[in-house]
Amino acid sequence: MPELPEVEIVARSLAAQVLQHKITAIEKLDWERMVETPDLATFRATLPDRCILAIGRRAKWLLMTLDAGWTLALHLRMSGNLTVQAAEAMPDIYTHLVLALDDGRRIFFQDQRKFGRVRLLDPVGLAALHASLGPEPLDTQFAINDLAQLLARRNARLKPLLLNQAIIAGLGNIYVDEALWYAHLHPLRAASSLDPDEVERLYYAIRTVLQQGIQNHGSTLRTYRNSYGEPGNNQEHFAVYDRKQQPCPRCGTPIKRILVAQRGTHFCPVCQPDPSALPITVENNR
DNA sequence: CATTACCTGCAA
DNA sequence: TTGCAGGTAATG
């Protein structure tokens, strides 16, 4: 569930609570498959006594910089939540990882669907993670031309391309649909078919919807919460996502929902014209 | 590129 | 009971 804005909010709210605190113990780890690397014995032996020096985000990964060169990377996937709990709080059956802190509070990694993952990375592993991911769309370094380069010569359709974390980082099903609506682009448009104006529209649309998602503390459809356990309210601002049959905020046409790459995809059939309905580009003589 | 698997809860 | 859910990796 959590996409870039949600993970960003979790990272910020976690940083506000646990920076400079030490992880004293792993109090619960009852779904061992969530630990992807290193092996379980090393994970269990290394995490205790690590101090949390910084908390950030890369794509949809939450990164806790620890001492001794370690980074704890957590991925919430569809239903994960990271919260800080008082000493007396009891983990429920969906809480699969509990990290005790030096002041008695604890960090709960709760995950109904058990898709969430954790990696304890050394500097080499961290570099490999970064290298596997595309650019951060909110990075001040990320320019219109960078997006143009990502789209150029790619036959893939916009929706699956923008969901691909190796191409561009942090977008998920909600924010792709929202961005394409803002940019007036149909999700099935071929990436390489965009003209410069359309690339520019998409660039600002992506940044706008992500920034708006952060401003509204993320989107809570079912389970998403920040690290205080509070929901976001960006779902109240959706233009198309989860709004099948409801009026397009721009033109009033009922929003359509189709399947693209097996993902529910929402768009306005008038504002985002079907690529097959676009005027044929006649090869202009010279 | 499309399909399937990974999990569980919830709404239709 | 079936299908669907904010994600990704593995498989044809």
Largest sheet, strands/sense/barrel: 9 strands, mixed
Strands side by side in the biggest sheet: 2-9-5-4-3-1-7-8-6
Number of contiguous helices: 7
What structural class results from the helix and strand content? alpha+beta
CATH class of the largest domain: Mainly Alpha
Gross geometry: elongated
> Which sequence of SSEs, written as H and E, runs from N to C?
HEEHEEEEEEEHHHHHEE
Oligomer: single chain
Helix content: 25-40%
- CATH fold naming of the largest domain: Helicase, Ruva Protein, domain 3
- The overall pLDDT, averaged over residues, is 95
Rounded to the nearest angstrom, the distance between the terminal CA atoms is 49 Å
Return residue spans where pLDDT drops below 50 for at least 5 consecutive residues.
281-286
Question: What would you report as the Rg, rounded to the nearest angstrom?
Answer: 21 Å
Strand content: 15-25%
Number of strands: 11
How would you summarize what this structure contains?
The chain has helices at 4-18, 40-46, 123-131, 144-151, 158-163, 173-182, 196-215, and strands at 22-29, 35-37, 50-58, 61-66, 71-75, 80-85, 95-101, 106-111, 117-121, 256-260, 263-267. The protein has 286 residues and is of the alpha+beta class. The protein is elongated, with a radius of gyration of 21 Å.
